[in-house]
């Protein structure tokens, strides 16, 4: 429910819907790369593509929206920002309150070893670890669910030691991918997918075989 999200955030970040409004957080799993992105790029090859992943997600969620012709469906994507440069929604907070993935933050560590350093939090999924992404939130403004019960996210990094290790790796060594394997995972990115996301955005078109015009 939108109210779960708004309850843990400052008013500046609230979603402007009644608290019982139904919402879905959309995650992409590792297989998205082969099952969705590559077929999408292949199909759209001759069109101008700005960001292949963002446009792929937008395409598929537009298809979802079409499945509900009698319902109003609002979609907010993870990359959308407000005029003040703030994100339209805080993806990791949304995933946590929806029970989709646990958002580990500095406050989850009792004996903080970082002093005055700035430490960012990160979501971990019980099945995919850090090998997933939060892509969007789907809102159904005309559907109110006052009786919907909130499910807590699975706390899969439960020890103090592991939480410190996770936040250390995410904040200071994120390029080596290790934080994503903080728990045992069922599926992770392929080497091709890792290479794609490790490449600077402007150079990713070549990896997907897109023509120069798309750049």
Tell me about this structure.
This protein has 215 residues and is an alpha+beta fold. It has one domain (2-145, 153-204). Helices cover 30% and strands 14% of the residues. The protein has helices spanning 2-7, 32-43, 52-66, 91-97, 160-172, 191-198, 204-207, and strands at residues 21-28, 74-77, 102-104, 122-124, 133-144. The strands form two sheets. A three-stranded antiparallel sheet has the order 1-5-2, sandwiched between helices. Strands 3-4 form a two-stranded antiparallel ribbon. The chain is globular and about 55 Å long. 27% of the residues are buried. The model has no long low-confidence stretch (mean pLDDT 94). It is found in: Cytoplasm. Its cofactor is FMN; FAD.
Brief descriptors of the model:
two-stranded antiparallel sheet, EC 2.5.1.151, demethylase activity, three-stranded antiparallel sheet, cobalamin binding, NADP, oxidoreductase, 215 residues
Provide a concise account of the structure shown:
By secondary structure, this protein is α+β, with helices and mostly antiparallel strands.
């Amino acid at each position: 429910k939108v109210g779960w999200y708004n309850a843990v955030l400052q008013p500046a970040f609230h979603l402007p819907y009644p608290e019982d409004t139904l919402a879905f957080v959309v995650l992409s799993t590792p297989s998205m790369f082969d099952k969705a992105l590559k077929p999408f790029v292949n199909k759209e090859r001759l069109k101008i593509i700005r960001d292949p992943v963002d446009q792929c997600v937008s395409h598929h969620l537009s298809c979802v929206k079409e499945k509900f012709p009698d319902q109003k469906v609002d979609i907010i994507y993870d990359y959308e920002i407000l005029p003040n440069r703030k994100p339209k929604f805080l993806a990791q907070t949304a995933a946590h309150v929806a029970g989709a993935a646990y958002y580990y933050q500095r406050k989850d560590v009792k004996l903080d070893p970082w002093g005055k350093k700035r430490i960012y939090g990160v979501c971990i999924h019980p099945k995919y670890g850090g090998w997933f992404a939060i892509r969007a939130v789907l809102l159904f403004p005309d559907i109110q669910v006052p009786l919907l019960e909130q499910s807590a996210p699975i706390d899969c990094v439960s020890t103090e030691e592991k939480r410190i290790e996770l936040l250390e790796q995410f904040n200071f060594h994120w390029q080596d991918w290790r934080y994503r394997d903080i728990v045992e995972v069922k599926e992770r990115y392929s080497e091709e997918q890792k290479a794609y996301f490790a490449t600077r955005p402007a150079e990713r078109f070549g990896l997907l075989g897109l023509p120069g015009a798309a750049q």
